Amino acid sequence: MNRPPCLLVLGLSHRTAQVELRERLAFRAEETADALHRLLKATAANEAAILSTCNRVELYLSGAVDASELDARARGFLAEFHGLDGALRASLDGALFAHHEGEAARHLFEVASSIDSQILGETEIQAQTKEAYRLAAEHGAAGPVLRRLFERALALARQVRADGGIGRAQASVSSAAVQLARHLFEDLRGHRVLVLGTGEMARGIVRALKNGGVADVLVVSRTLERAEEFAKHEGGRCGKLEDLDAHLAAADIVLVSTAAPHYLLRVEHMERAHQARRGRPLFVIDIAVPRNVDPRIHELPDTFLYDIDDLEEVAEEGRRQREEVARRWAPRLRQEADALLHEWRDRAPDEAAKELLKLAEALRGTELERLRASGLRDPEALAQLERALERFQGRLLHGALAALKEATRAGDGATAAHWVQRIFRLGAGSGAHDAPAEAPPQQAAEPERNEAASDRKAHAAVPKSAS
Amino acid sequence: MGPEGFKLLAALFYLAGAILALAGLRWASAREGPWPHVLLGLGLTVHSVSIGVHCARSETHFFTSLHESLWLFSWALAIGYLVALLGWGMRSLGTLLLPLCVALLVVSMLSKEPGKAPPAGLASHPLFSVHVLSAILGYGLFLTACAVSLLYLLEQRLLKRKVFNALFRALPSLEKMERAETLCAWIGFVLFTVAVGTGATMAKSSGQTAWYFEPMVISTWITWLVFLFLVVGRASGRLAGRATARTILIGGALVVCTFLLRHPFREEHKTTGRAPEPAPAALLLNPAEGAP
User: Would you place residue B182 in the very low, low, confident or very high pLDDT band (cuts 50, 70, 90)?
Assistant: First the structure.
């Protein structure tokens, strides 16, 4: 195992597994703490985080363990935790993917930026990534490696969203309707939506419009009960079909979605309404099939009619834009991942030296405390003892620190750091994470290790980007 | 540096702003950041300095010739763009107004027609400078409203044809453009009314009421009436959407018509009675008239 700590991501996603398997492997929020502790114990990794969403389950691991060994242990953990065996275990192995080192970092960058999402550019994954790290840090499973990795991933996700325009392009029919409405109306807040019919798809568009700021929704249907139910559920009010002309005159957006096999809105309706509208633009969305709005109304001045195909075209254009952004950012994310990996390798000797000094100081402090507790009160004797321990510590560590320095100069700092960590049992893997829960608290060596572990917990703060 | 140097520098800033605005029609990232404001601010500052230096050095009077009129006119357009940019963040408007500013400045630099000295009586009139500045700024805002109206009609066309290209995505909403064109027309109308009022007062004091019926002056009056119709129509809610944009474009065409009557066709006022003095209506774009 002559190698520095490795980084591994093992998981499955909508690209590799069916929803049935993804459901089976999902980690519920309340079981995350237990899962993290069992994962660290099972894999002997230093650090771990679990990203579990409806589209993916991914384990992020960092540890001074051989990569293939870590991979095998993590696979075993997944199967064991979720109780998979036989055919399910075989299908799990077929669906899992694994990325190491720079590839693992690149993968997280793409996931957090929603480039790897099923709906490219969706917004939830950024918050889910942040939450995954927060939980890992809260339960003491994340250390400096994962902190830096997730910090960078979240920062890059923000850049991709802000700079690349990935979040601006609309990729669904509902959001396409909102986008088109925003080309007519600057602020949707002051505008009225008239909903004709109570189709399921209309609910999605009404919700999207309400999220966009619309407050005034008027629902009109041939069946009053349905209109009332729709209005109650989606937050609107009911109107009468007999007053359609008046409703059309007052509306800014008309959404039509009924099961009627004929045109409900005809040119005559719009011409009558047009008189009262005095040139105010009217946006008509007809998502019914067969269509419920006479297509000729699109030819009337200041009236814009869009059917389901038009909205789908806008959504498709949005998807194309997002793909373009993803292509543009892919090389940059790869570069960032490589840079991060180099940074870790360059920082490893420094980190090891700091950890080593910290451990020595903790040990010295504990021994002094023990002496005080045993009755040694003479301040002069205590001071002499402290100085002696300091000299001892300096002489003992001198060789290790000098070797780290020389190895860094020779370009082999990461390996040397790894050996120092192994020899002195530094790092999270030797701490509380893998300490068996049933270990007796009075064991002599445990206080130091637990102290170091609690110190690491303090270090594993939520990333700057997350706070 | 002389006024011509400052003018060239202003044209370069406007050109950079125009290129950035054109790039914004294609790439979303070009629509981010403060650069349109910075470039316009720099251009307008240098442009103002060039006008100030010219006024300070001029021995005759300011802005009597074609090149001087174009110089001041492009400055008014840049102010109109500044209003639209600060008020509504309408960066895409730069694609129309900034190239126009550059073109006017370039023609102004190439034109060598000397300015004529205005009669002493008119130049010393207390309303003269108010008349000139309000007229030029009013025209600048009218043409800004016209540019917004053009974008409005363009976006309407794209919405009607269901073309969802990069240009469509770069344009602001119809509602925002309607507000912008209306407010520009309103401010322009107030300034233009001041200009027409001061001009009429000066003409009356010169005893040249016959000028009111000359083609150039009639064009000015019609322009004023068109914008009056617009502001009343908007205020009463009887005018909206495409009709507003079209009315503004008619008004804008009349502005250009008045300018053409004065400059390329060099129409002069027919004087009657006592000693001729420059007609205020003629001063709307070319404020100071020479002695006949």
Answer: very high
Indicate if ipTM > 0.90.
no
Evaluate whether A311 touches A176 at the Cβ level (below 8 Å). yes
Phi/psi at A169 (5° precision): -75, 135
Q: How does pLDDT run across B202-261, given as a tens digit for each residue?
A: 777 776 666 677 777 888 889 999 999 999 998 888 888 889 999 999 999 998 888 777
| Predicted pLDDT of residue A5 | 61
**DSSP readout, chain B?**
--HHHHHHHHHHHHHHHHHHHHHHHH-GGGGSSSHHHHHHHHHHHHHHHHHHHHHHH-SS-SS-SHHHHHHHHHHHHHHHHHHHHHHH--GGGHHHHHHHHHHHHHHHHH--PPPPPPPHHHHT-TTHHHHHHHHHHHHHHHHHHHHHHHHHHHHHHHHHHT--SHHHHHS--HHHHHHHHHHHHHHHHHHHHHHHHHHHHHHHHHT-GGGGGSHHHHHHHHHHHHHHHHHHHHHHT---HHHHHHHHHHHHHHHHHHHHHHTTS---PPP-SSS----TGGGGTS-PPPP-
**What pTM did the predictor assign?**
0.66
Distance of CA A440 to the CA centre of its chain: 38
| Catalytic residue (one of A54, A127, A410, A439) | A54
pLDDT at residue B285 in the model: 43
> Rounded distance, CA A48 to CA A10, Å?
11
* pLDDT digit string, tens, across residues A39-90: 999 998 889 999 998 888 999 998 877 888 889 999 999 998 988 877 778 8
Query: Alpha-carbon distance A70 to A344, whole Å?
Result: 19
User: Closest approach of chain B CAs to the CA of A298, in angstroms?
Assistant: 7
For chain B, the residues whose C-beta falls within 8 A of a C-beta of chain A are: 28-29, 32, 155-156, 159-160, 162, 164, 168, 171-176, 179, 237-244
Domain A173-301: which CATH number of 3.40.50.720, 3.30.70.20, 3.40.50.300, 3.20.20.60: 3.40.50.720
Taking the CA atoms of B202, B206, B212 and B215 in sequence, report the sign of the dihedral they define. Answer: negative
How far, in Å, CA of A29 to CA of A103, rounded? Answer: 27
| Domain coordinates in residue numbering, chain B | 1-115, 118-292
Domain spans in chain A, listed from the N-terminal domain onward: 6-169+320-343, 173-301, 349-459
Q: Which two tokens stand for residue B239?
A: 């005018």
pLDDT by residue (tens digit) across A388-426?
988 988 888 888 888 888 888 777 777 788 778 778 877
Q: Return the amino acid letter for A118.
A: Q
CB contact under 8 A, B171 and A165: no
* Second-level CATH architecture of B1-115: Up-down Bundle (1.20)
- Please give the structure tokens belonging to residue A148: 């830096």
Q: What is the pLDDT of residue A169?
A: 56
Full DSSP string of B192-203? HHHHHHHHHHHH
pLDDT in tens, A325-378: 778 888 888 888 888 887 777 777 888 888 889 888 998 888 888 888 888 878
**In CATH, what is the architecture of A6-169+320-343?**
2-Layer Sandwich (3.30)
Quick one: which of B175, B145, B171 has its CA closest to B158? Answer: B171
| SS3 state at A45 | coil
- The alpha carbon of residue A363 is apart from the nearest alpha carbon of chain B, in Å, by 54
Q: Are B202 and B128 in contact (CB under 8 A)?
A: yes
Check the CA dihedral B146-B151-B157-B160 and report its sign. negative
Phi-psi region of A266 (alpha: psi -120 to 50; beta: other; left: phi over 0): beta
Structural tokens at position A190:
């002051």
User: Which of A175, A278, A300, A319 to mutate to probe the B interface, most B CBs <10 Å?
Assistant: A278
B187 pLDDT tier (thresholds 50, 70, 90): very high
- Rounded CA separation A116/A256 (Å): 35
